[in-house]
UniProtKB/TrEMBL annotation:
Keywords: ATP-binding, Nucleotide-binding, Transport. The keyword Thylakoid does not apply. PROSITE patterns: ABC_TRANSPORTER_1 (PS00211), ABC_TRANSPORTER_2 (PS50893). GO terms for molecular function: ATP binding; ATP hydrolysis activity. Gene3D superfamilies: P-loop containing nucleotide triphosphate hydrolases (3.40.50.300). It comes from Roseovarius spongiae. It holds the Pfam family ABC_tran. SMART domains: AAA (SM00382). This is ABC transporter ATP-binding protein. It comes from the Bacteria. Residues 1-222 form the ABC transporter domain. Belongs to the ABC transporter superfamily.
Length: 234
């Protein structure tokens, strides 16, 4: 449960909001640029050192959130001196656990980077780097996953594939994904939230389980309604 507002210095960077993330469901968060979506994710992940939270963040089971969250940031920070495979296994390395190269190979193959596993991030395209960061997030195997525009740099075909792969792999996880794409929210969201300067609003999600067909009637209707609402809010 999140209940609070956030500021940096004297500036409010997240309006006061209150919401719960339903367990094992995929929640999509949309809203205009600069409204505080990334700040919200960073606060939940416990890495928003720049911001001051006036409120509380708590898991419904009362246990600490630390150690249960994987986050894929917008500026996917791959370490430039490590290979793609080593980046994918970074979580284990940082925890001092034994890395699992066979699993990394599998996850990298899943995101279409098998042929690039030994390359440095600098030798990849932006979309390939984003898939490498996605692989690292999937490798983490955490019950709560925060995704900040994870598919934004991908071409249309790869985006649809990665949405499907991620939805399948994260089934059973509690996911909060920031996206600017109403089509993506209509495909993946079991709950759709819109953040604005005045607070949080909920938008109805299609009833089918994600990933929904791109051209499904319910998906297209939800996409259209969401876009109209976002335009109205602009
Ligand atoms: N480190 C920082 N120092 C000062 N202000 C910041 C910092 N990080 C973010 N902000 C400000 O906080 C506000 C919220 O930023 P945030 O990145 O959370 O927005 P967002 O909704 O994720 O935007 P976008 O959709 O463009 O990614 C913005 O006004 C931004 O300028």
């Amino acid at each position: 449960m999140f209940d609070g507002a956030a500021s940096i210095g004297a500036t409010q960077v997240l309006p006061r909001i209150r919401f719960e993330l339903p367990a094992a469901e995929w929640t999509c968060l949309l809203g205009p640029s600069g409204v505080g979506k990334t700040t919200l994710l960073r606060l939940i992940a416990g890495v928003a050192d720049e911001a001051t939270l006036d409120g509380t963040i708590a898991a419904s089971d009362g246990a600490p959130l630390a150690g249960r969250i994987a986050m894929m940031a917008q500026d996917a920070l791959l370490l430039p001196w490590l290979s793609v495979a080593q980046n994918a296994m970074l979580g284990d390395r940082l925890r001092g656990a034994a890395p699992d190269p066979a699993r990394a190979d599998k996850v990298l193959a899943g995101v279409g980077l098998a042929a690039h596993a030994q390359k440095r991030p600098g030798a990849l395209s932006g979309g390939q780097r984003q898939r490498a960061a996605l692989a690292r997030t999937l490798m983490e195997d955490r019950p709560v996953v925060l995704l900040d525009e994870p598919f934004s740099a991908l071409d249309a075909r790869t985006r649809v594939q990665m949405q499907e792969l991620t939805a399948t792999r994260l089934r059973g996880c509690t996911v909060l994904m920031v996206t600017h794409d109403p089509a993506e929210a209509a495909r993946l969201g079991q709950r759709i939230l819109i953040l604005s300067e005045t607070g949080l609003a909920e938008h109805p999600a299609p009833p089918e389980a994600p990933p929904r067909a791109v051209d499904g009637a319910d998906t297209l209707a939800a996409q259209g309604a969401l876009l109209a609402r976002l335009r109205g809010a602009a």
